[in-house]
Amino acid sequence: MTARQAESAFLQACRREPVPYTPVWYMRQAGRSLPEYRKVRQGVSMLDSCTRPEVITEITMQPLRRYDVDAAILFSDIVVPLRAVGIDVDIEPGVGPVVDTPVRGPADLGRLRALEPGDVPYVTEAVQLLVAELNGRPLIGFAGGPFTLASYLVEGGPSKNHDRTKALMYGDPELWHALLGRLAEITISFLHIQVAAGASAVQLFDSWVGAVSPDDYRHAILPHTSRIFAALGSAGVPRIHFGVGTGELLGLMGEAGADVVGVDWRIPLDEAVRRMEPGKALQGNLDPAVLLAPWEVIEQRAREVLVRGRTAEGHVFNLGHGVLPETDPGVLARLTDLVHAESTRPKPGTP
Amino acid sequence: MTARQAESAFLQACRREPVPYTPVWYMRQAGRSLPEYRKVRQGVSMLDSCTRPEVITEITMQPLRRYDVDAAILFSDIVVPLRAVGIDVDIEPGVGPVVDTPVRGPADLGRLRALEPGDVPYVTEAVQLLVAELNGRPLIGFAGGPFTLASYLVEGGPSKNHDRTKALMYGDPELWHALLGRLAEITISFLHIQVAAGASAVQLFDSWVGAVSPDDYRHAILPHTSRIFAALGSAGVPRIHFGVGTGELLGLMGEAGADVVGVDWRIPLDEAVRRMEPGKALQGNLDPAVLLAPWEVIEQRAREVLVRGRTAEGHVFNLGHGVLPETDPGVLARLTDLVHAESTRPKPGTP
Fold first, then answer.
1. How far off is chain A from B18, nearest CA to CA, in Å?
2. Residue A281 near residue A23 (C-beta atoms within 8 A)
3. Contact at 8 Å (CB) between B213 and A247?
4. Do the beta carbons of residue B117 and residue B193 sit within 8 Å?
5. In whole angstroms, what is the distance from residue A178 CA to residue A105 CA?
6. Distance between alpha carbon A211 and the CA centroid of its chain, in Å?
7. Residue A186 · residue A112 · CB < 8 Å
């Protein structure tokens, strides 16, 4: 760990240590909201851009040139490790991940072989390049969570209600657990590779897990998420866990072993605190759609998030989901400065 | 009210009176899951089928020939009253409602004129035909809720995150309240027309309102929903209110004046009871995806819903959202009988 990392407000907040100010980063801070991103991506497919170290590095760094955010997040996609083990997945513009041959029976499990570092050399290289360039600012590694990965594999693409996925979860627990077990293995390996290359924290995005009830989460998903977080435990990096619409699941997502639980905008952070066991930091939770409103509204809403975030043992400011493509980058720059200025605590002894 | 209606288990449960058994109906019980529906709809557009009394009547009755459900629900669509006042909305197959000229500014409000009974003669006629044919079994009228209608109007079609809608809600409260006020007027009129023609209950579907936080619901939506329910109060019919992913909003949806609050599958009914003020019945909440699993799973899950539903002052069994198109109608028939058989209480004095 570098000297600057030891002092990183982001890592301090994740560890529930005192912070000089509330750290901030944004889900999808790199991406379609930035003209320079759209320029780099011209003529380069999404998955190609996730397999070229210099492209990954450039896109990951772009928001840091505009915003004084406290962390970078590796530019990648949750299906990258699936493709790396040979799944026929592609990302169609305007659609999302599409899997040619969905997983429907036990015979399909064989296609989910173990992930080795040699399968994703571009990730190792990109993380190493980024760590050097970030000069001590933390890089967040990431992976998709087991329910969300399973949903893309079972549905064959994005899905409104995850019906087939849930039908499998309800109707064939043996196949379900075998599938999620393999996905957990791949995810553990993918996150280990990123940490070994220098990532300072990891976020597990189980974006769509809010589609299941707490009882189902506990029995069908939590065992696999717990295994992922436990396997990462010895790495010593903060483990962040996030999904959309997970108000009912926040306590369980903490129980699964996350150090930091991400909250969408549907519940205030002080209510999220009440749903968690002690010993967890929170991340969130300004509604991304607020950023489309006039600045006075953004300012007032951001202040509310900061006030409520003070009830948590640690608070990393973020949006409640990813930056919307139509967001004005100037607004994110201003918001970043507002969060820092509003939350700065004078050092002991200063007037 | 006919003698049979006075005895309707559905209406009794809505009124939190003792019931001989737990009543059951299904959201989207009429529709794409039925081959006879697909046959009637061949070559007839969705909105055309909602404006022909004999088609409305046939489709509404179809599920009652298969399932021993305790209520029929008028076949219609939430955009029907919008089209009736002249909004250029159509329903595109595989897409959903599409509005050619979205509502974006105050000048657009003029297009949302008041709805008169003469605008929807087919609804009055269909309800009258149905009430005669139903022979005392209750008919549920319905309308879309203010947030959901606003979302289609502002986005111009179905939307993943309702970003523009929320940007308007956050950024221009004056226009927002003016828009929802007009939508509430239209909705009140549309529901009054259905009740005047003989509907025994009404359901307000604010399907997508779960996208907002409780604070925003209270300030931006509840005043309009309250007005709708208050205006229906003198009609004396039970008022049901439903939205997806509204676990955080259930108490407020009750406060708005609903007699019955619908719950999706994300929280168990006994937990929903804890979130409500006394004096409310609940409706729900089997996950529609459960119906794609083997019968043993469906049976066990349905029993769980019944057990938890007993903690409510009144319980109407339903799914947590609409019947999925791929659902086997035979399974719904069997489920209906299971709910009735499992919940039948012997009359006092019988062994």
1. 29
2. no
3. no
4. yes
5. 11
6. 18
7. yes
In the three-class reduction of DSSP (H, G, I as helix; E, B as strand; rest coil), residue B191 is classed as helix
Mutation pick from A95, A147, A170 vs chain B, by most beta carbons of B within 10 Å, is: A170
Residue type at position B319: L
Three-state SS for chain A is CCHHHHCCHHHHHHCCCCCCCCCECCCCCCCCCCHHHHHHHCCCCHHHHCCCHHHHHHHHHHHHHHCCCCCEECCCCCCHHHHHCCCCEEEECCCEEEECCCCCCHHHHHHCCCCCHHHCHHHHHHHHHHHHHHCCCCEEEEEECHHHHHHHHHHCCCCCCCHHHHHHHHHCHHHHHHHHHHHHHHHHHHHHHHHHHCCCEEEEECCCHHHCCHHHHHHHHHHHHHHHHHHHHCCCCCEEEECCCCCCCHHHHHHCCCCEEECCCCCCHHHHHHHCCCCCEEEEEECHHHHHCCHHHHHHHHHHHHHHHCCCCCEEEEECCCCCCCCCHHHHHHHHHHHHHHHCCCCCCCC
Alpha-carbon dihedral A319, A320, A321, A327, rounded to 10 degrees: -40
Are A290 and B170 in contact (CB < 8 Å)? yes
Is A67 among the residues known to form the active site? no
User: Out of B163, B268, B290, whose CB is closest to A324?
Assistant: B163
Three-state DSSP class for B202? strand
Q: How far is the C-alpha of A319 from the C-alpha of A53, rounded, in Å?
A: 27
Which positions of chain B have pLDDT values less than 70?
1-6, 345-351
Q: How many CB atoms lie within 10 A of CB B40?
A: 17
Q: Which of residues 164-223 of B touch A (CB under 8 A)?
A: 164, 166-167, 170-171, 210-215
pLDDT at B347: 54
Where chain A has pLDDT below 50, the residues are 351
- The per-residue pLDDT for A158 is 92
Mutation pick from A151, A168, A213, A291 vs chain B, by most beta carbons of B within 10 Å, is A213
Contact B268 A213 (CB under 8 A): yes
Tell whether A346 is within 8 A of chain B (Cβ).
no
Q: How many helices (H) and strands (E) does chain B have?
A: 16, 9
Q: What integer pLDDT is reported at residue B94 of this predicted model?
A: 87
Distance CA A76, CA A277 (A): 31
Angle at B8 between CA B3 and CA B9, to 5 degrees: 155
Residue A62 phi, psi (nearest 5): -50, -50
Return the residue matching tokens 């208050």: B230
CA B327 – CA B330 distance, rounded (Å): 9
User: Residue A94 has what pLDDT?
Assistant: 87
Instruction: Verify whether the Cβ–Cβ distance A287 to B326 is below 8 Å.
Output: no
What whole-number distance in Å separates Cα of residue B180 and Cα of residue B161?
Answer: 19
Would you call A268 an interface residue with chain B, using a CB distance cutoff of 8 Å? yes
Q: What is the ipTM, given to two decimal places?
A: 0.92
Instruction: At A39, list the tokens.
Output: 């320029």
Give dist(CA A90, CA B18) in Å, integer: 56
Helical spans, DSSP H, in chain B: 3-6, 9-14, 35-41, 46-49, 53-66, 80-84, 121-134, 146-155, 163-171, 173-197, 214-216, 222-233, 250-255, 269-275, 295-309, 329-343
Residues A182, A184, A189: CA angle, nearest 5 degrees: 100
Q: Is the peptide bond before A285 cis (omega within 30 degrees of 0)?
A: yes
- State how far residue B220 is from chain A, nearest Cα, in angstroms: 14
Which tens digit of pLDDT belongs to each residue from B204-246?
Answer: 999 999 999 999 999 999 999 999 999 999 999 999 999 999 9
**Distance from the B130 Cα atom to the nearest Cα atom in chain A, whole angstroms:** 32
Position B82 scores a pLDDT of 98
The predicted pLDDT at position B284 comes to: 98
Q: What is the pTM of this model?
A: 0.95
Residues of chain B found within 8 Å of residue A176, distances taken between Cβ atoms: none
